[in-house]
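subagent[fold] <- orchestrator: predict structure for attached chain, return tokens only, no commentary.
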Amino acid sequence: MKVVILAGGKGTRIAEYSTRVPKPMVEIGEYPILWHIMNWYAKFGYNDFVLALGYKAQVIKEFFLNYYALNNDFEVNLSTGEIKYINKQNRNWKVTLVDTGLDTMTGGRIKRLASNPQLSSSASFLRLNVLS
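subagent[fold] -> orchestrator:
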């Protein structure tokens, strides 16, 4: 089952931090709030995450793109460019990052995720029932 995390809000109630980083990336200890939430789900066996991004999406994307290098010691061979990781701190997580738009509200973010063919093809992703 995929865990969907809406990580696109502007964080206006924490404006002192959110002018620099989006709310999910405000650090608690060594890691951002988002990491702590994902780690909590992972403790219960949920390791497949979909992040609906919006405000300052590039900050969240950079965190995950650089995660492995920033959380491990490594050796770089400058003549070949080869990287050898010394102590692999591995998280068995699959993280899908989807930019759902800067000013998109919650319902719009979910709709964009549900209309993504790569995500909605998963039977355990999401089921929307529209009640009138």
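orchestrator: received. Logging for downstream: The CA atoms of residues 25 and 60 lie 7 Å apart. The radius of gyration is 17 Å.
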